[in-house]
Every structure is written in C-alpha cells, then in structure tokens.
From TrEMBL:
Its main location: membrane. The chain crosses the membrane at residues 21-45, 297-325, 349-377, 389-410. It is found in: Cell membrane. This is ABC3 transporter permease protein domain-containing protein. Belongs to the ABC-4 integral membrane protein family.
Length: 424
C-alpha cells in the first residue's frame, strides 16, 4: 500500500464513524478554543493598552501625589531603617498643589514638554439649547501642552494657550462625540458656540479628532478646560492633587530628565537632603509593562486549561482507537492476508488519530479566534490572530493525535492475520 492509499483509507474510515469522530473532535476543539480564545483576547487587550499609552510612548513620565504609607494598625509608618533617609511627617501625605505644579514648570529647564493637569471629581452634564448629554462626560483640566502629551489632536479651531490658563476664561475643547451630538458631522459648526457644562457657560474654541475608546470608556466624550476652571467650578475637594506630565524628544534623555525633575521638584516640596521623596515618578511604559506582566498569568492559566482538556481528549481518543482496533480485527486480518505489512496497518491507525485531532484543532482555532476578537470588537481594536498560539495549537494537537494513536496502532500491527480472520 502506498502512502496515498493509506491516507485515503484513513479519511474514509474517519468519515464512516461520524458520531464517534464528532464527539472526539468536539472535546479537542474545546481545549483549543480555550487556549486560542483567551490568548486572542489577551493580544487584543495588550494592543489596546499599548495604544492608550502610545501618546506619551517610552519618552514620557508622570509626577504624581504619593499616598502616605500605613502600617497594620492604620497609622503612618514613622520609623525608618538606620542609615536611610527619614520622612518629614509634616510634609507626608500632601497633594501636589497648583502652585507647586506651576513652580515646577517654571523651574524645570530640561528640554522637554511639561503639562500640569487635574481631573474633575465628578462626571459632568453638557447642555446646548434644549438638549443635554447623560451625566457621564469626562471633564479634564489641562494647559497648553495637555492635548499633545495625551495623544489628542485638534481637528478644527485652536488649542488652549497660556492666556486661557492665566486668565481662567471660560473656553473649552470638546470631543467628537459631544460635537456630533449637538452640531452634526460638520466640525466647523461648534466653534464659538456656547455650551453649558453643569450649567456653567463655556465657549467652544476647538473640536478634537476622534480617538476611540479605552476599556469601554469613550475618549471622545470629554470636555477639556483650563485647570484653573476645574479647580474653581468642578473640584469640591480642596486637597485634590495635580499631575505633572513630562515628555522628552528621545528615549536616551529619559533618565536625565527624571533625575533633573527630581532635583527641581524636591525644593518645591520643601524637602531637605536627608528626607525621602514624597512624590512618585511613573514612566509611561511602566503601566503597560505591569499589565503585560499580569496578563502572562492569564496566559499560563489558559495554557493549563487547554492542556487539561487535551489530556482528557487524548485519553478519549485512545479509547476510541482501541475500540476501533477491536471492531476492525477481521478487516486487519484481511489486509494482512492480501499482502499488507505491519507498518501499513500502524500508519493507517496513526493517520486516523492525527486526522481526528487536527480536525479538532481546526474547529478550535476558528472558534477561539472568533471569541477572542469579540473582546477586540468591544475594545475597538483591529482584528487579531495570535499566529504563535495557532502554530502551538496545531503542534499540540498533532502530538495528542500521535500519542493517542500510538498504542492502538502498535496493537493493530501486531495482530496475527490468521487469528484476526477467524475473529467474530
């Protein structure tokens, strides 16, 4: 028998036992669906997360307020290790004020863009004439550099400028969702129109380009005003802390920029040489690295689920192949009687096992990619295919088919043709 004849016979045998084959294929497909589906979703999540931080990329960092450290008895940690810098109790747990943020911008001489910003402590309602939005509009207080450092771009009109910040005049930038809701698709219509944000009038000076959504939250359903107006109208907490964002032109400058930022900000925060920093500096890519590191645990869990399911499928497949050997004993004897060799019998059963396993892989891969990309659709990412995991799934299923069919194939090859022909 040639290889072609053996394969043809294996395919015919698989087709003739449709119910048995279908059940085994379904079990294998479930394992591969879990493996491919979860990893496809993870790829989509990574893609969206990296897109969200790509606006600052690896060349930016954020200075933010540091929460006071507390011990088990809910008291601030007061004791430090001998030789370490001490914490100044009177200066710990203090937010970054507007004066400190502005002082940093004035004192920071490194060649970089700097933005001071604050977020409103509640979502807002935006109204125009007799129409209004739901109370879920994201309200941000920024400065002239905020849009550039956070991946926003002005489609029509102009950005905030230093005069807007200094005078605190009521002007704003609106996201595409708000502009379209009130004024239609024409991006020029909203300019110079007066909208009311929580019943406070603001004049629209610019419309932002569409940016999409992140983790279910639209980045186009927002209003950007000056941080002075957020403090005045939309932040009831007098101790609300500012964030300071810095972006340099080259990744090689990032460490020097962070070092100079620390040196410039410590005196502003009234720290002496012996005291620890009471603020945090986060690199823009550290958030993405943290998420990717956490997602690796989900990947391992998906792999474990897939392997457990496939082990069960392999046992079931081996059982089916052993039953097939018993059912086809007389057929095996006939093949041997007309000149069939042991290796032909072995190959036939091995090919049958591998074909069933690869059919399960094919269905599982397709279902897994579809299910994983449903997550991608919800996150507004492009269609993704984790080719490395697809290849891994095919290899795993091939090994499952090979190992599950090996013992039944050897058993079938060893059958005595005379005893096999007499088998009832």
């Amino acid at each position: 028998m040639t290889l072609r004849d053996t394969l043809s016979l294996s395919f015919r045998t698989v087709r003739s036992n449709r119910l048995r084959t279908g059940i085994t294929v379904a079990i294998i497909a479930l394992g591969i669906t879990a493996l491919i589906g979860i990893n496809t979703a993870i790829v989509a999540i990574k893609q969206k997360f990296l897109e969200s931080f790509s606006s600052m990329g690896a060349t930016g960092f954020t200075i933010r307020y540091q929460e006071p450290r507390r011990g088990f008895n809910n008291e601030e940690v007061k004791k430090e290790k001998r030789g370490a810098k001490k914490e100044k109790k009177s200066n710990m747990g203090k937010p970054i004020t507007v004066h400190q943020a502005e002082a940093f911008k004035a004192a920071y001489t490194f060649p970089a863009q700097v933005s001071a910003n604050i977020v409103g402590d509640r979502s807002a309602i935006v109204a125009y004439e007799n129409r209004k939005t739901n109370p879920n509009v994201w309200l941000v207080g920024g400065d002239e550099n905020y849009t550039g450092l956070n991946g926003f771009a002005v489609e029509n009109g102009r950005d905030l400028n230093p005069v807007d910040i200094e005078t605190g005049r009521n002007v704003c930038l609106v996201g595409k969702d708000i502009a379209t809701r009130f004024f239609g698709e024409n991006a020029e219509r909203p300019l110079d129109k007066i909208i009311r944000v929580d019943n406070i009038p603001f004049r629209i000076i610019g419309v932002l380009k569409p940016k999409g959504s992140t983790f279910g939250r639209s980045l186009d359903n927002l209003v950007i005003i000056s941080y002075s107006n957020v403090r005045r109208y939309f932040n009831s907490n007098p101790n609300a802390s500012f964030n300071i964002q810095v972006k340099v032109s080259d990744i090689k400058l990032i460490d020097g920029a962070i070092g100079e930022a620390t040196s410039a900000f410590r005196p502003i925060r009234q720290l002496t040489v012996t005291e620890t920093d009471n603020f945090m500096i986060d690199k823009s890519d550290s958030f993405a690295e943290m998420l990717i590191r956490n997602l690796s645990f989900i990947t391992m869990a998906a792999l474990l689920i897939g392997v457990i399911t496939l082990v069960g499928a392999a046992i079931g497949l081996m059982n089916i192949m052993l039953v097939a050997v018993t059912e086809r004993t007389k057929e095996i004897g006939l093949v041997k009687a007309i000149g069939g060799k042991r290796k032909n019998i072995r190959y036939q059963f091995l090919y049958e096992s591998i074909i069933i396993s690869l059919l399960g892989a094919a269905f599982g891969i397709v279902l897994g990619i579809i299910l994983g990309n449903i997550v991608g659709i919800l996150l507004s990412t492009s269609f993704v295919v984790p080719w490395d995991w697809v290849l891994t799934g095919v290899i795993i299923c091939s090994l499952v088919g090979l190992l599950a069919g090996l013992y039944p194939a050897i058993k079938a090859g060893k059958l005595n043709p005379i005893e096999a022909l007499r088998y009832e």
